[in-house]
């Protein structure tokens, strides 16, 4: 009986690990808002995922950016229309405010010490919203029209704290400096 119990325990653990590892991927993810996205990518760092629909008639994208995060941290996703890194990127950030309500806004990243205060971006962003569930923050938005075609440089980020309604600096090594790439939105 002890051998059978151990085997059953091992099977349960393996099954649980399978479900945990597949639950956080983008393929097959179901949004609580019932929104459906045609494209998605599991980003290589920061336990993040990007879902999108490219809208050719308006040269815009409807995005959902999801990342694992604690309730006291923050996340951000950005397009950089002028370069490949953080400086120059046009960001959307989300976090819980001091009342515990999800806050989402846009902010341009003009230096390595940005203000992170709400400001207008160099391109339109509409339908902004954010949600938090199961240790994961999600940003939803419509971005565009985009001026530089369907291939964009994008950056994603996360930090562990917010002070006085402003996201604080993220780590400056490891995954936090590897969180950038090029993305063909037409795929």
TrEMBL record:
Q: Which CDD domains match?
A: DOMON_CIL1_like
Signal peptide interval: 1-23
* DOMON domain segment(s): 46-174
Q: Which UniProt keywords apply?
A: Electron transport, Membrane, Signal, Transport
Cite a single Pfam family from the UniProt record. Answer: DUF568
Coiled coil region boundaries: none
Region of interest called Disordered, as start-end residue ranges on this chain:
163-187
Q: Which InterPro entries match?
A: AIR12_DOMON (IPR045265), DOMON_domain (IPR005018)
**Gene Ontology cellular component list:** membrane
Q: Does the keyword Ion transport apply?
A: no
Q: What is this protein called?
A: DOMON domain-containing protein
